[in-house]
Amino acid sequence: MSSEEKKNTGGKSPALRRRFQCGNWRCRNGVWSCKYREYIPQPDGTYKILDRGQSFPGLSERAAKAAMNPILAAVNQSNLSEAHLVVPTGSRTMNDVMEDWRKLVAPHRKPRGVETTESHWRAHIGPELCQVPVSQLDLRRVQEFVNKISPGRSGKQVENILLTLTGMLRHASKWDKDVKAISVSDLTMPAKVKSKPRFYEVEELKRLIAAASEPLKTILIVLVLTGLRINEALALRLEDLDFKRKLISVRHSAYNGQLGTPKTEASVADLHMPPYLEKVLRDFISSEHYRKNDLGLLFCNREMRPFSDNKLREKMLRPLLRQLEMYSPGKVFHAIRHTAGSVMLESGASIVNVQKQLRHSAASTTLNIYSHVLGDSQRKAVNKLARRFVA
């Protein structure tokens, strides 16, 4: 094996990738260029991977992509790609739809939603559909896409990917008459298996809080006593704490070190501040663990920005769970929210009050998540009914 092959394959015989390439595009100094790969068959049955590139000086983005289409079509055919479409010169493709989405829609979406869309495009939609002309992307073609990505993935994962794709098409159909809006309900989807919500036992949370150091200790107490989402807790500011009226105002959510809006409109609300939580918050603010910052955040990192929930989970929560021999993959911050709702219901709170505290958009959401708790309550009620008649 040559040194160039070893460089590209790590010293191993490369597996042939049966993927439809759309190229890696970039613009430098006003010149558009596209990088792609070729897999060259060798006499010994292996394949040599060659990284190729093509520049288009003087051409616009659309003209450059149109000029590149025949090259990519030939490369995909030689790579034994399963894709069979040859894109007519000048026709709009799903790649163009994605570029429009980035320019026109993404600026108005929350960072987490944009990140999810980019991830679905990069891993699933782009490799299969990026060079498909939008005029040919009909219900049958999308159903073929569903069937191809379904093996090895849960029904929920496939649905999420399709919601991203159909959402892009729905926006594009408003601007381009050749784009057909497609609904997930029109597709035959794999069955979804409802995942069971994860919970902590009350004693586990007590152990966790007792062993935690600041600021994780105070963050955990806030989550337990309010049922806030972790990103909402990390976005709390001093002005959101009304000690006089004993209220906590949920107005923001933190993501990747930035403040944004909460998950839904229903998430914006004022929550009761129990006396014990008031004491904990006052003690934290007056302690050395509180960092005064320009944003007025209750919790902030060394850069005076909101904590990242991912980093807090990986660097503080999970190491502590392992130390206490309590670790399992599902025990994350959101499990504390589920525990809070479960304990409230077990304590006799109505489903409506729990819905308001957790700020679900509909009571049906609360019912679906906490059906196991309600099942226990139902059994107790039936047992009481039987005792009344038997006695």
Task: Give structural notes.
The chain has 391 residues and is mostly helical. The N and C termini lie far apart (86 Å). The chain has 15 helices and 8 strands. The protein has helices at 3-9, 61-78, 94-104, 111-129, 139-149, 155-175, 202-211, 216-226, 230-233, 275-285, 309-323, 333-346, 351-358, 363-369, 371-390, and strands at 24-28, 31-41, 47-56, 241-242, 247-250, 253-255, 258-260, 269-272. Mean pLDDT is 84; it is low at 1-18 and 80-87. Helix 3 packs across helix 6 (155-175). It is globular. Strand 4 (241-242) and strand 5 (247-250) form a beta hairpin. It folds into 3 domains: 1-84, no CATH class; 91-192, DNA polymerase, domain 1 (Orthogonal Bundle), CATH 1.10.150; 202-378, Intergrase catalytic core (hpI Integrase, Chain A, Orthogonal Bundle). The chain has a 3-stranded antiparallel β-sheet with strand order 1-2-3, with helices on both faces. A 3-stranded antiparallel β-sheet has the order 4-5-8, with no helix packed on it. A two-stranded antiparallel ribbon has the order 6-7.
